[in-house]
Amino acid sequence: WRINMTQEKIARINELAAKSRTEQGLTEEEQTEQAALRREYADAMKHSLKTQLDRTVIVNPDGSRTQLKKK
Q1: 42 to 10, 46, 54, 58, 60: CA distances (angstroms)
Q2: Three-state SS string across 12-42, please?
Q3: CA distances from 8 to 14, 15, 28, 51 (A)
Q4: What is the arithmetic mean of pLDDT over 57-69?
């Protein structure tokens, strides 16, 4: 399972955020797009963090390695 968050999508998130702060604001279509992109970005960040934590090990003083456990 991989979420592909491209630089173009991140740029679009920033573009929509900047436009939302103007007097013009966002259209309904742009608001929907912004919400979807933000959700995709959040999901990608969560997935990235989970993957990183899943691969993290603790090196004990005796040199043995212990994988992090879920709580």
Answers
A1: 11, 6, 18, 27, 33
A2: HHHHHHHHHCCCCCCCHHHHHHHHHHHHHHH
A3: 10, 10, 21, 23
A4: 92
Q: How far is CA 63 from CA 31, 44, 54, 59, in A?
A: 52, 33, 20, 6
Count of all residues that appear for the chain in the document = 71
Expressed in angstroms, the distance from the first to the final Cα of the chain is 22
Q: What is the pTM of this model?
A: 0.76
Handedness of CA 43, 46, 50, 56 (dihedral sign): positive
